[in-house]
Amino acid sequence: MPGKTPNSNGKEPVEHAPRNNQDVDMTDEKSSMKKKGGKEGEDVNVVVPLLKNTRQSSAPPPPDAEGDVAMDDPDKAEDMEVQVDPVTQAITDIKGNFALLDRAVALFDARFSLRALRSISSLRKRLTPDILAQVVAETFPASPASASVAKNLLAAIGKQDVPLGRQSGSEMEVDSEAKASAKNGKKEVKDVIPEIDIFLSILVQVYLFDSKQFRQGSEFSKQVCDRIHSLNRRTLDSLSAKVYFYYSLFCEQLQPLPPSPQSPVVAIRPTLLAALRTAVLRKDIDTQASVVVLLLRNYLLTSHISQADLLVSHTQFPENAANNQVARFLYYLGRIRAIQLRYTEAHEHLTAATRKAPASSCALGFSQTATKLLLVVELLMGDIPERATFRATNMEQALHPYFLLVQAVRVGNLEDFETTIADHADTFRRDGTYTLILRLRQNVIKTGIRMMSLSYSRISLRDICIRLHLGSEESAEYIVAKAIRDGVIEATLDREHGFMKSKEVGDVYATREPGEAFHDRIRACLSLHDESVKAMRFPMNQHRLELKNAQEAREREREMAKEIQEGDLDEDDLGGDFEGM
């Protein structure tokens, strides 16, 4: 072996020293400087480490025996790699979801469709008409069955002239090999499944909404809804729910805007009601939950509270709906109950909505909106929200006007309350809580009376009138009498002498209030546990697939055992994988 040949000086060869008759495998110079070395006078290749200030000669490395030049640094090789075109990457990401949709249809499992829908958030920033047109052209073949669907997609993005049946580079290579192998046969054209068609329609809807083409998006969404209504496929349930969602958003942005009775949101109610009826008959849970939420939002935009209440009372929201739809439904239901003065029910629904709200930054707007309405409802119930709610990093700035409102209500200062409303009236109107906040004036007065009843054992009606900035002593008398009747304060009113006398306050822990509050928290935790168990998703009909596979395996074993008994097979033919019955 050449490794055993001694050197000319009679000493042992240095390890890893290259030979003159072999190709040199170049590695990192810095690592070779650390590993190689020798003494002076030895006939070996010694690599001298370079100083920091010295520079290495820029002569290119010599080629090896095959003429290839090795790289000096592997980091340079990584830098010289060809970067992927963002357009090509976006097209590849969109087409990658087609395999998920195919599996959803083959296995009848909606989880793969939901996984494809979750990728829209990462795709929507990269969507352009050219990318969508290229995906449509490469997906749909130039067949009459698929031409009409593809033309509608291309017309929505203004690319009617793009020819269909275009192939990408990898597909062209596969197609050339298929043509070479089947010269006499005709290539079969595979039709696109409706799930891919609807998924591309959703991408077109997202692009039109982000580019603010609301009129065109509304017309395109109506065509897609008509196509979905004609199809009866359970694998389209989650996709159709998303289509109706964007259809409603398009109509909300069209002129005249709600709450005008001529708004397009009123015109789409028959479409949504028909979709709800069809979804209930087909047991389409995703579309049913989505359309119920859209109808409630539609009625609230035009202030049709009675119709929204009738919809809630005559429909049953599906228990197995997605968590996001449940949170939206509870929020709108809480808003309806708050307008109807049913604050206890509204508080329960809004509390559940805030707990079910996603913790991601994408749902921050929903969490802030639900929290704002919950704070107002708590004030209307006579409770003071916790201060920690306003200290959250993602809530502090948005809830600042409500923090000032809570301060005025907690102290019972009517003047500060009216000043806060005047300063932040636009914010309250934009949040949809202005009319509810106007109801808080009586609560502010009641809170002020309660604070005075706790501070003074007896106080005159004149002092109450001065402290609460009321118009006269008679109005103060009526307000105090109503507070006593409602159980806000425990006191007696002496009309002859004109004063209010407070009763002694007992130990609150001796009452049933702490036990009731503890019971409410336990009930909320138990309901959350039950809903979490119900929300667990499992593959549909998976047990049937397992039984089918087990039955096929048993039949194969019986056939093989029968052939062994007849002498057709022996142990060598089985390969050692056969197990007895």
TrEMBL record:
One GO-annotated biological process of the protein: ubiquitin-dependent protein catabolic process
One MF term in the entry's GO annotations: enzyme regulator activity
Acidic residues bias: start-end ranges: 566-581
Compositional bias per record (Polar residues), positions renumbered to this chain: 1-10
Listed Basic and acidic residues bias regions: 27-42, 551-565
A single Gene Ontology CC term: proteasome regulatory particle, lid subcomplex
Cited PROSITE patterns: PCI
Keyword Manganese: no
Domain PCI: 327-507
One Pfam entry name: TPR_PSMD3_N
Disordered: region residues: 1-73, 551-581
Keywords: Proteasome
Family the entry assigns: Belongs to the proteasome subunit S3 family.
Name under which the protein is recorded: PCI domain-containing protein
